[in-house]
Every structure is written in structure tokens, then in C-alpha cells.
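Could you help me review a protein record that somebody else here produced? Do not assume that whoever made the record got everything right. The record follows directly below this note.
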Amino acid sequence: MKKLLGIVVLGLLWCSLSYSETWTCDNYRFGKSIYEVEETEIVLKFPNNDGWTYKIKKDQREYKISVYGEFINKQTYFNYDIYMDYQGKYVINRTQDALSGYSKSYTDKNCVIFY
């Protein structure tokens, strides 16, 4: 009985530790973009093997609302952030020049989420 209980507890712990999902979205420049949302980061990948890794700052995945992440590139003085909306199934990518304050953004739409 103790072995069975131990197996059940370990199985539940193992299942709860690996939470990730993949978003596939329409991108205006590359056609498709892939977002892998893990515990502490969002990995953005493009078909040309380019991409970014964002650190998750605000996580409301539990309520199926949104995820917000940031990436700071100190070499070029650009700040990047990303907002993923569960209800609308879209992703907003924003770039801001830390020196001039100039910013731009684009939206990836028609996202499909795989758990």
C-alpha cells in the first residue's frame, strides 16, 4: 500500500512540474511564428531559426487570461516585451528603444494553442 501511495504521489508531482504549451500564430513577416510557453520563459521561434527568449513577468495562465514577458538587450539598448491573450488568441510583440523612447509593435493573430 505504501508503494502504491508513493507511486501516485510521485506521479502527481512529476505531472505538475512540467507545464508548457505551444502557440502557433500567423506572422506578417515570416508567415508563421511559434511560441513555447514554459514555467518561467516564453521562447519565440521563427521558420528561419531566429527568435528570442522572454522572461515571464506576469502570469495569469491559471485563469486563462494572459502571459506577459520581457527581454532586455543591453548591447543594442532595446527593450522587448510580449503579451499573449488567451481569449482573443493573439500575441502583441513590442520593441522600445531605451535611448530615444521610440517604440513599435506588431500583432500575431489566429493563434492555435497546443497543451
In short: The first strand starts at residue 21 and ends at 27. The longest helix spans residues 2-17. The mean pLDDT is 86. The chain has one domain: 20-114.
